[in-house]
Amino acid sequence: MERHHQPVSTRTLCGTKPDRTPRDLYDPHGKLQYERSDIEEDGIVAVLADNVADDYLQTLRDNGISYCFAGPDGRNIQKAGAVLRNTFRRRKLLLEGGGLINGAFLQAGTINEISLMIYPGIDGVSGIASSFDWVCATDNQPARGQALSLLHVEKRDNGVLWLRYKIEKTIS
Q: How many CA atoms lie within 13 A of 87 on its CB side?
């Protein structure tokens, strides 16, 4: 597969629904296959690694799907955030991810609130991603300088707890 090597700033594409609030989907390797250019009539912005194949980018263009880039490995949250703010007028993001993408945002210091629902189940399985995982050197502490402050607790049906926390910057 041929790779793109143009400067990232010239490679952002606004698809067919630029006026609607887009849904940002982090897909560093360009593996998601879209059936349409929107989710519930909201446009899509695929956030990709810089080296995604040209044929994948062409498929996105052909389907009217917007995209931008987040560095060589797709984890440069600040870079993607700047494009999402400046090009797509994003001021807030709802992060609904797994442990790795949540960990990347935590490490970047870009999370200001956490809404967490805890289901009362246990499985005892090891090696499963947690809510916040960060693959890095063992001395790297992605949550350093950040603390949780409880905003809200609500007991829901079936013993589910809904917890909301504000992330506060601390002196590290």
A: 23
* Separation between Cα atoms, residue 55 and residue 32, nearest integer Å: 13
Which run of H or of E encompasses 61?
helix 54-62
From the list 70, 64, 61, the residue with the least C-alpha distance to 29 is 70
**Residue 11 φ/ψ region, left for φ over 0, alpha for ψ in the -120 to 50 degree band, beta for the rest:** alpha
Q: 27-48: per-residue pLDDT in tens?
A: 888 999 988 887 888 788 899 9
**By C-alpha distance, which of 123, 115, 126 is closest to 164?**
115
Answer whether 0.85 is exceeded by the pTM.
no
Please name which of 15, 112, 101 lies closest in space to residue 65, comparing C-alpha atoms: 15
